[in-house]
Amino acid sequence: MPVYNDPFRRRGLSQPRPSGTSDEVQRLIQAYQALQGKAEQLNTALTAKQRELEAKQREVASLTEAATQARRELEIKNEALHRQNADMKQMEAELVWARAGVQQQEKQEQNAKDAQAAEEISWRERYVRLQSELDSLRRRWEQRFATETANSRQEILRDMLPLADHLELAIQHGEALAEDEAKEYLRDIQATYQAFLNTLKRYGVTPIEAQGQPFDPNLHEAVGQIQEGDLPSGAVAQVVQTGYMDGDRLLRPARVLVRE
Questions:
Q1: 235 confidence band (pLDDT: 50, 70, 90)
Q2: Residue 218: is its pLDDT beyond 80?
């Protein structure tokens, strides 16, 4: 916690004894007390900001734990897919035996065409049916795995977005502060926010630039209308909550106020 340092105390000196008239002494004392009060207020504000940052760090840890849990669920799903692959291999082995039966049947046709005709048809039908079932099963598994993987990935990314919202709000609140310590705190928050955006970008997640753009219901969610500003009617006048894209897919729409 930053502490206001008394320059006289830090140098090991006692406070200077005022000289002159009693009014000048009184004004000096009042000015000194006002300076101490302002320093205490600044220390209190910085303490609150530090506690808020610690709360955000705990939230990051919670989101990390959620991501770990989701990764475990994906591992469980992968294990299930491995078991399904084993079933597929067993079916492929059965297809090999069926193909061998067809080949054997074709060799026997030369000696007993009439007697073996019905059995030959049975082998061919079984082979075609098994081949069709295997292709259909493979397509279903591939489609299901791709869908579940994409949904799980979006759930993890969507759970991480509130942290970006809180950091963005902290930056907006910190911009109103003028003290040097507060500006340093704001730079730290901005660096954390930018690092988090860079992490999202590595996973293909980018923010939607909505300010001043024409309202697009596919990307924006209107929460109200305002009349102020020089923007044309139907344009986004203010972004209430930033939206994000996951590659070409919408991860979360931007919540905006639209110019009437």
A1: very high
A2: yes
CA 203 – CA 152 distance, rounded (Å): 13
Q: How many CB atoms neighbour CB 129 within 10 A?
A: 11
- Average pLDDT value for residue range 146-158: 78
34-to-37, 87, 176 alpha-carbon distances in Å = 5, 80, 22
- Distance CA(114)–CA(29), nearest Å, equals 123
Q: Which residues of 66-77 are buried (b: 16+ CB within 10 A; e: fewer)?
A: eeeeeeeeeeee
Nearest to 170 by CA among 160, 180, 162: 162
The pTM score is 0.42
Residue 216 has pLDDT above 70, yes or no: yes
Q: Is 255 helix (H, G, I), strand (E, B) or coil?
A: strand
| CA angle, 242 then 191 then 171, to 5° | 50
